[in-house]
Amino acid sequence: MRDFSYLRANSVDAACQAAALPGAMLLAGGTTLIDLAKCGVTEPETVVDISHLKGLDTITVDDRGVTIGALARMSSVADHAEIKSRFPAVSEALWQAASAQLRNMATIGGNLMQRTRCPYFRDPANFPACNKRTPGSGCSAIGGVTRGHAVLGTSEACIATYPGDLATALVAFDATVHLGDRQVAADDFFLLPGATPHREHAIEPGEVITAISIPASAAAGRSTYLKVRDRQSYEFAAASAAVGIEFEADGRTIRDLRVALGGVATKPWRARAVEEALKGKLLEADIVKQASLLAIEGAVDHGANHYKIELAPRVVARAILKVGETA
Amino acid sequence: MTVHEIRTRQSESKRGDASDGAIFAEAVGGRLSRVDGPAKITGAAKYAVEQQLEGLSHAVLVESTIAAGKVRSIDTAAAESAPGVLLVLTPDNVLRLNTATDWLGTPPPDVPYCPLARDITFSGQHVAAVVAESFEQAVAAAALVKVSYDETPAIVDLDDPKAGDGIPVDTMTKEWGDAQAAFTAAPVRICAAYNTPREYQAPMEPHGLIAHWQGDRLTVWEPSQWLDGMARTYAEWFGVPFENVRLVSPYIGGGFGSKAFAYGYGAVAAMAAKMLGRPVKLAVTRPQTFTAYGGRAATRQTVALGADAEGRIQSIVHRGVNETSVDGMWVEPLGSVTSIMYATPNFSSRQNVVRVNTVVPGALRAPGENPSAFGIESAIDELAYEVGIDPLEIRLRNYAEQDPEVKKPWSTRQLREAFAVGAAAFGWSKRPREPRSMRDGNQLIGWGVAAGTYPVRRAYGEAMVRILTDGSVEVESSSIDMGQGTYTILAQTAAEVVGVPAENVVVKLGDSRYARAGVTGGSRLAGVMTGAVHKAATAALDELVGLAISDPNSPFHALQANTLVVSEGRIRSPRGDGPDVSIAELLGSVGREQIEAMGDTTPATWTAEDRYKNNTTITMALPHTEGDYSRHSWCAHFIEVRVDEDFGTVRVSRVVSALDSGRLYNPKLAESQWKGGIIMGIGQALLEEGIVDRRHGRIVNNNLADYLIATNADIPDIEVISVGIPDLHSSLLGGKGVGELGIVGVAPAIANAVFHATGKRVRDLPITLEKLI
User: Fold this and answer.
1) Angle CA(B662)–CA(B521)–CA(B362) in degrees, nearest 5?
2) Which residues of B does the annotation mark as catalytic?
3) Cα B325 to Cα A254: distance, rounded to the nearest angstrom
4) What are the φ/ψ torsions at residue B489 (nearest 5 degrees)?
5) What is the CA A145 to chain-centroid distance, rounded?
6) Annotation: CATH topology of A5-49
7) What pTM value is reported for the model?
8) What is the CA radius of gyration of chain A?
9) What is the pLDDT of residue B9?
10) Which side of chain B, N or C, has fewer Cβ within a 10 Å radius?
11) Does B711 contact A126 at a Cβ distance shorter than 8 Å?
């Protein structure tokens, strides 16, 4: 960790100005920034503390949906009564993320900005090659320990998994990220690595996440987040799925379906092929299982992560059937 | 705040409520809660590296980034000119240290010891260190130290083609009968390989120390399972008398075998403190806990069982391999359970060690017995299915009525009782024979059983007991409490012997100035130290009663009694006639400030040198098969797992374990230790694995987010049942080992349950989901 300057922003505008400084990074809950600074991965020249900004932690619900202030804590959002009833997948994704201590500190805006757990990314002293850290330096993960790495959305430059749970639910339900006045669809906010894995988010210098909004929908109201992992708590997903269903009036035919995958891709992964394949179909186990295989179309493994290709469709199918079968 | 202050406060707060007396008056065998608990949960307990010292400076290690080769050069210029830097240590400017005697008492070679390496034998080896005014400055400067290497190919693990078959360890060979011929001739044969990965102790409190020299006297605050052993190492490194080194370690945040020795980083800190003339703190980071000392070695075992058609074992052929480092030796005794668990007329066990580029492995809860049990207790389960009998029945059919290896009777072996009691509590008789017979929706349910054992490691101990002016009792020992309850059981022992409430006993541990003690490891401390405290307290009581009877100023002088009784802190005649005075009143009457008695269990013939060896090596310990008996703790685990059929995830849903640790000095604490071992065993079975990048020979999951230990969510209710009886062949007060027993057999019980649930036999730990989908 090297010395840095510390600025405490008094307003969103001041935070935006400070965030435009070269080498500036925002500090909210600190659970990612400080962790990565200790690893030597981030070396900010200026830390802009936005944790004291007023009015950015509110949660507003109306008929159109919910708007969550960027500084709302993960635990507050997870426990919010209307988020639990109208967006259960969002609440469940948050409850299954991280640990109680982290959820009490980490903010929703910061959660979107969390970085990958790729062990090669996190250890610059031993693994200097990392295109995400140092563009053009290479990828240490390819050919190494890849059990946790992505099978979808990878490139020759990077196979690091997007680690978050919340964003998987956000992408499934067409959430929008508010960068002050500019709004970006959550699905577009997260970038594929391609040849530029160091660019992870569609956020420009001088922009600050101020809120996230999720439109109300019948599918969001009947939704779940299913997370599969070896350890029951405090582990990243081996594979996860955010799923929501709206039925036709018959209660059996799928009118609207939302499916997104976590733990298997380089960004939160919307599985539109599964959605399209099942819309208009009856909710039957065989049909659902067959369609769920579309979730991993184009998947490429790197050896030890091959199991994710087997696992992900099963997680999707289970989540769809679970939501569909709940009255 | 010390334990004493905490406890005084407790008793004050409870004054006036007579019902509280019973809680604190508990003697040996009572369920007294941990007396150090309040200090720990309130944060009042001050751990070693939390000491505040004037002029404290901070050391940070620089570690090798290659697994094999040589350091070509170290550029320290940038680090030396960084803000706050006091010293950059490299192999070029270290103090010359001596090589120290090891724990086995091996005389050291007359070559210097350098804790910073030029020859690199593993990734993460210490190559340099930076000392600065602040921790942050030391961290920043350490990142500026530029090390260049000449790298050579590394042997990364047991599977490396360069690793070879290794070195035979002849002392591990155990043979009787003709095992190979009997196996070949047996009507039923199974043979399989069982593997365990590198595992780590992962104590909540990472390692570290503060070293402080005053002239040629060194004080080290460091979490320690062995103050005297570590003090000796520091003394020999620096060429000062043993008595000049003081180790202080009042609380330890978990050790699990990892805190018994002084390691290289300790030498670095003490050396820097000497060179700078000011105290140095060195806190090992969590990632460094994976390479600054060793975890459990990766192991491979092949177990071949030959049996008759009824499942009676005719032969066991066992071959084991564990990894060790390039320049150090660690033997994980893989045949230790294999050779004693079942009766067999023919037996062969041999073991090799294979050198790979790793830090030298070390002790982790039940070294040897733990992986050994995974092999034999999985194999006998496989044999049960092969023969077609119940896995519990096959264990009873092959029950060893005496130690099959040394052919001596067991001191006590309540294993049959453990099987019976555990099976009844678990409901084993309702178990369907066939795998995949039980299901709950997507969950396949399986039941598994396995046995465990750990030898009774006996040693000699000493303790100081004082009866103080106010009638309270003080116990002193340089042994330690790393969470297992030493403070508590020694208070109970002294309280029972002297006849005072346990709350009036203050136990002082963790300072090498106190009565000397050997290692806290191998589950020996409770047996050794309750015996020593019992002796010392008895001597103190005898002196107290002697004074009361014979001192002319004693109120009992005129009574002409032969003896007196002391209970609840008061002295009376056995018949109840005559005076009834408190200990404090008696000491006041006879004008004594205190009574002080050393007690020990050591042979009367011992010299000072013998005592020194007893406290600083393990050479004076008694073999568990010494004399007429073979002494072991025993247990049986009954475990239910639920395996998600689609996802391969395994969850332990029920554990019932019946355990024989002999007499329990404090059942509440023993149960906690057993449960702790079982919890650790669940993590070992399902989660724990040091993952090596085979291109670099480096552990890549060196943190607690990626090296998975069990969380509360992974642990169901655990029922533990004591089936032990006092075993006076094992210890003065009848206890056998507790601390390591609980983990032994958990992993095979889970693997056996997973087979029963799924029909898939997993022989490589941990049982992660991709092995089952």
Assistant:
1) 135
2) 740
3) 60
4) -70, -30
5) 23
6) 3.30.43
7) 0.96
8) 19
9) 39
10) N
11) no
Which CATH number is associated with domain B57-63+69-152+201-290? 3.30.365.10
Structure tokens at B199: 């595992």
CATH of range B3-30+459-616; options 3.40.720.10, 3.90.79.10, 3.30.365.10, 3.60.15.10: 3.30.365.10
CA B138 and chain centroid, separation: 33
Tokens of B664: 């329990």
Residue given tokens 């408190």 in the structure block: B582
Q: Is the pLDDT score of B15 beyond 50?
A: no
Token pair of B628, please? 């007429």
Polymer length in residues for chain A: 327
Q: How far is A145 from chain B (nearest CA, A)?
A: 6
Residue whose structure tokens are 């202050």: B5
Dist. CA B62–CA B677, nearest whole Å: 34
Q: Are A311 and A320 in contact (CB under 8 A)?
A: no
Structure tokens at A243: 């799923």
pLDDT at B652 over 70: yes
B719-743 pLDDT, tens digit per residue, is 999 999 999 999 999 999 999 999 9
Q: Which fold has domain B299-457+624-771?
A: Aldehyde Oxidoreductase; domain 4 (3.30.365)
Domain spans of chain B, in order of start: 3-30+459-616, 57-63+69-152+201-290, 299-457+624-771
Q: Which one of A231, A233, A292, A310 would you mutate to disrupt binding with B, by most B Cβ within 10 Å of its Cβ?
A: A231
Q: Find, among B739, B742, B738, B764, the residue nearest to B751 by Cα.
A: B764
For tokens 């469940």, what's the residue?
Answer: A92
Of the candidates A1, A311, A318, which has its C-beta nearest B136's C-beta? A1
pLDDT digits (tens, 9 = 90+) for B87-137: 999 999 999 999 999 999 999 999 999 999 999 999 999 999 999 999 999
Q: Return the residue of A nearest to B702 by Cα.
A: A119
Distance in Å, alpha carbon of B199 to nearest chain A alpha carbon:
16
Please tell me what DSSP assigns to residue B478. S
Fold of A219-325: Enolase-like; domain 1 (3.30.390)
* Distance, CA of A132 to CA of B535 (rounded, Å): 66
The H or E element containing residue A61 is strand A59-62
Average pLDDT, chain B: 95
Give the start-to-end residue ranges of the domains of chain A.
Answer: 5-49, 219-325
Interface probe, candidates A151, A234, A321, chain B, greatest B C-beta count within 10 A: A234
| Interatomic CA distance for residues B650 and B424, integer angstroms | 24
